[in-house]
Amino acid sequence: MSFRGINTTVIQIRRAVFTEVARMAYANVKGEQANHMMRSIPYKIIPGEEGKLRKDIFLERAIVEERVRLAIGLPTRRMDEHNSVVSGLEDANIADKYYDPPLVNVIKFACNRCPEKMVKVSDLCQGCLAHPCMEVCPKNAIVWESGRSTIDQEKCIKCGRCVDVCPYHAIVKTERPCATACGMGAIHSDALGRAEIDYSKCVSCGQCLVNCPFGAIADKGQIYQLIQSFNRGDRVYALVAPAFVNQFPALNTTQKLRAALAQVGFCETVEVAIGADLCTVDEARDFLKEVPDKLNFMATSCCPAWSMMAKTLFPDMAKNISMTMTPMVFTARMIKAADPEARMCFIGPCAAKKLEASRRHVRSDVDFVLTFEELAGIMEARGVDLSIAPEEEELHYGSAAGRGFAQSGGVAKAVADKIHEWYPDKEVKIASAEGLANCKKMLMMAKAGKYNGYLLEGMGCPGGCIGGAGTIADPVRTAVQLNKYVAAAPFKDPEESAFITNIHLLKDDPDFE
């Protein structure tokens, strides 16, 4: 499980880092002044002379230094050589910088070196006469010692049978939380037992970073570069994903959200749901054209983590992923076509969107990506008073179907409903999965021919976008608020969108791949 909705110490530190990096950027200082501000951040976040978190204040400040570097978009430092915390700051102190890989990083000296997998007997063991744990163990790894069961870790294969049969629930099976959250099997231990990411498998979903209880994993950010763009007077649009509902309770209307974003520095706020509307229509047309004549099934393209996972693990099925642009790209291209000199900042729940925006064929459209958590830090740094944000005109851009993209099942439902509207007698079978492990299982079944003729929807995060790594609120509560936001949409049909005529112009863009 993740800790969204619980104000843990890890979340407090992460938020404080985002806030201080934003304050530093708004100060618009250069050279030695910038270096001084950056060096002082760990002392503001971890004050005093004695450690209270890891019992070593120097270690805690060193970890904050790494988090600051990543929030600015800089790489972590090697532990076996000297490198100043401000190294590379001058290169990052610009408004035109994308991510240098890798996006998701392990801060090695923050890692607790959790065991990859372990089955152990706790103090709850009653030494019962039946000892079913011993009877079911296929490797005879459990023996009786000093009146209780003991597991020989050399023999144990971590099957968990003893865990299931213990009447006192005295046997527990534990796994490194970050590895449990990773649906790609991309996390293992290095030679010293610390978490290490296999980047040939990682799809940057970010679930590991929100599930690590020690805050040892973090992704890079563009907070610093975005605010540099504000400072030089750029017109920057905020492209807000529909998953924003419930992330900022004080901004419970799109009017207040728009007003708060204007105080931050954005020239205008746009619902990404308008891009979702275009995506719905385009994917519906693609499905009708491709399935079953050319493809045995089609899969949606909106989630970059899901799409990358499918293409990585099932390359022969890459052709089955829709070529439709994601709502983020549709929206960005549309606004940029109307205002070519402006810059686009996607604000959403997703770490993988940062990776998508840095791709060669997308980076000309999307200049910045912020998570909701990073935006919260920026608003705090700017001093936005959420309780008195003035009312602005309500956003009425996206349809109910487009807003529904934010949760699992919403994309496929929107596409299927559109096809059914065009062809009432045509049945569109749907299968959907949330979380990369479940997505993998769905594609394995598709490969076996179980989903011929289907529209498949994959969401990399549990619950869909509302459970993304960049969210703040409890996804369960967000789902309730999202349903209200969908119901309040000014229209239901994506084809009623005032922007639907743009779909042909955007698809004909010669730069589109």
From TrEMBL:
InterPro entries: 4Fe4S_Fe-S-bd (IPR017896), 4Fe4S_Fe_S_CS (IPR017900), Cytosolic_Fe-S_CAF (IPR050340), Fe_hydrogenase (IPR009016), Fe_hydrogenase_lsu_C (IPR004108), Mono_FeFe_hydrog (IPR027631). PROSITE patterns: 4FE4S_FER_1 (PS00198), 4FE4S_FER_2 (PS51379). This is 4Fe-4S dicluster domain-containing protein. GO terms for molecular function: iron-sulfur cluster binding; metal ion binding. CDD domains: MtMvhB_like (cd10549). The lineage of its organism: Bacteria, Bacillati, Bacillota, Clostridia, Eubacteriales. It holds the Pfam family Fe_hyd_lg_C. Residues 116-146, 147-176, 193-222 form the 4Fe-4S ferredoxin-type domain. The keyword Iron applies. NCBIfam families: FeFe_hydrog_B1 (TIGR04105). Gene3D superfamilies: 3.30.70.20, 3.40.50.1780, Fe-only Hydrogenase (Larger Subunit), Chain L, domain 3. Keywords: Iron, Iron-sulfur, Metal-binding. It comes from the Bacteria.
